[in-house]
Write a structure and sequence with these properties.
Elements: E1 31-33, H1 43-56, H2 63-68, H3 74-84, H4 91-108, H5 116-125, E2 130-133, H6 138-145, E3 155-157, H7 170-178, H8 184-187, E4 190-193, H9 196-204, E5 208-211, E6 224-226, H10 238-241
Amino acid sequence: MTGTVTPEESDGSDKDDGFTGDTGPELPSSVLWDMDGTLVDTEPFWIAAEYELVERFGGTWTDADAHALVGNPLLVSAAYIRERGPVPMDDHAIVHELMSSVVEKVRVSPSWRPGARELLDALSAAGVPQALVTMSWGPLADAVLAHLPPGTFGIVVTGDKVTHGKPHPEPYTTALDALAIHGAEAVTSVAIEDSPTGLASAEAAGVRTLAVPHVVAVEPAPGRFIIDSLEGLGPLDLLPAVSKP
């Protein structure tokens, strides 16, 4: 399913779909954001760093290789680069090499995805709890957070702080637990992701998902709603967007 949904498109008759009778659309219980490719456009930074690293050691890298890594835990991506390059470095060293390059660029400008910063700010103003759930490690998340008001996110879950990365549900269940979101509130939370790997993680955690594809394609799936952009989307649009059949 693709497209954008506005509150006016529902008759408000289903109290379980983000509406409550005559009161109109509800705010989500929480919103959980992926970072790379969803909140900020860092994927070109990562891809450029991958090309430079592999070619430095005489290897060949392709866009298909780069796209295969989108949304993965960084050590999984590093192992792929080490073997595919080949790159004669250990996986942690590869991660730090790539991440240092990306962090340097993000410190200059985070390059927000269209509509993302506006929605983020609107959710904050509405008092909706938010979490950042990323497979990037702490230093890169910190570089992005430096461009945001303190307290924008109630919890930041990074790839170096979980045992199992996406597509495992642990990153999202960790965020929900930290926000004290459980049961029915988890069902009325919304995860915003750009990759199949991230969407699988959120869906496995029982969270409704809003997919905004960027570098890699996202296929339709039950309970998943796909839109082209976050532009023009407000806090009251989120539950209707992920509740349409």
